Amino acid sequence: MNTKIKALVIALALITTTGASVNTFMANADSIKTDNAYVHGEITQISAEASGRITEIFVTDNQLVQAGDLLATIDPRDYLARREQARAAQSMAAASLENNRSRTELQRVKIDETAAYLEVARATYELEQRELRRYSELVKTGAVSKTLHDAQTNKARIAGANLEAAKLKLTAAKYQLITLQTERAQIIAQEQQTRAALELSELELQDTQILAPITGLVGNRSLQLGKFVKAGSGVLAIVPIDNLWVQANYKETQLTHIKPGQEVEVLLDMFPGTEFKGKVTSTSPSTGAQFSLLPPDNATGNFVKVVQRVPVKIQLEIPAELHGRVVPGLSAEVTIDTESDSGALGLEE
């Protein structure tokens, strides 16, 4: 009898254990888990846009800054001098342009004046020609002396020469106007060039102020008072406190049912016991190995099959009380619920 009771107890225990194992397996079948996951964010590297010595620093390590905050200044004296040079060059170009305008107006007046003299010379020439023809008729009849006729002939020649001179003066005046107009085009181009140079000097002067392009925490600061920095050299980094995500590196055999929009549970090693929520936003278009410096080439040599991992991007929801404390690089443990809604989000553009 005791043997039968023991057998019955053992059978019930096996049934219970088997049922629990089945329930656990079914529950886990809807969840895909990995601890190969890390918090990521778009860390912005700040570089100097102008060369010079650091004269002021307004931030310290790990300080929270807002977009547009002044981080540091570079000695602006050289850039102020260049701006003044550019302003002087623009003023000279503007003065040259005004001078050209005045000379052009004066030249137009000279053209009108020369045209009037030309009309006077033409009228005089026509008059002297008529007098010469009259004297030529009178000298034939002896009404006037040959001396008077010769004098009139000389006057007619002088009138003709004056007429030709007036024509040449008018032509020269018109060519001079064309020259001034061409000169004006050159001066305008120079003035535009000096204006551009002034705008460039203003931008260079603005670049002596190093501003924060985003809101975040200051890190990797190499700024020192008096240190000479070159344009393009890094001075610090700004780590964002918002728009963080988790990159979970799942095995390729785990990706079958992972889709954008599925709900995710995230545990961070830094905050044990605190459960973060998230959603799958996208899956990498390639395995992590393909983006490495030396992608694997399995076409030659001995082949050993290795399960590949594919990064899955998960948008992380950070509670307000932990803003600024969750930072890129933290280790995470991720569990994706593959039975949750998969249509909430689409693939990232």
From TrEMBL:
SUPFAM superfamilies: HlyD-like secretion proteins (SSF111369). Residues 1-22 form the signal peptide. It holds the Pfam family BSH_RND. This is HlyD family secretion protein. The keyword Signal applies. Residues 44-236 form the Multidrug resistance protein MdtA-like barrel-sandwich hybrid domain. Residues 113-177 form the Multidrug resistance protein MdtA-like alpha-helical hairpin domain. Keywords: Signal. GO terms for biological process: transmembrane transport. Belongs to the membrane fusion protein (MFP) (TC 8.A.1) family. Gene3D superfamilies: 2.40.30.170, 2.40.50.100, Helix hairpin bin (1.10.287.470). Residues 244-287 form the CusB-like beta-barrel domain. InterPro entries: Beta-barrel_RND_2 (IPR058792), MdtA-like_BSH (IPR058625), MdtA-like_HH (IPR058624), MFP (IPR050739).
